[in-house]
Amino acid sequence: MLVTLEGIDGSGKSTVWKALRESAVIDRPATFTREPTDSWYGEAVKRSLSEEAADPIAELFLYTADHAAHLDRTVRPALDAGDLVVADRYSDSRYAYQAASLEGVIDRPLEYIMGLHDPWTRVPDATIYFDVDPETGAERSAGANKFEQREFLADVRENYEQLLAADPGRYVRIDASQPPEAVLESVEGHLESLLEN
Which is deepest, 31, 108, 134, 145, by most CB within 10 Å? Predict the structure, then answer.
């Protein structure tokens, strides 16, 4: 089973991803992974985050290459071995973030990016979406890079809402404005239910 954790910057999903490694809820072999990866593709992606003038089309293809390599080298082998895979960010992040970056650059960016990914992605079995307002997200992440600004995060959140509306059966919405302990407890409860079913 592939379970992905998604949400805007500052939503707390990375904190929960780290805490789940020690969670008693996960009672089977599990692979914890994230995007961008630690590969050279992921390093190129991380470098682009600090470049205000980075071309958004070039960034899209960097992220896409990192995703394709991640799927080939980590996700599929772990799933083939019978592991639960828990990913901190996955293809939905690409759709939501890069579509916001490409708004006004290409027509219908969300659909374009989803079509671009289609040949080499695997749809998650379940996605836990950490919902928080853009102001809180920007405040928590302290605007450390160009993607962590309130206005941009508002566009990203809007894209996530479109994704949730298009495939409601895959997503579990978590109120990420709660204290961290409550968010983790809520995620563990949903994850336990997913694993039982």
Answer: 134
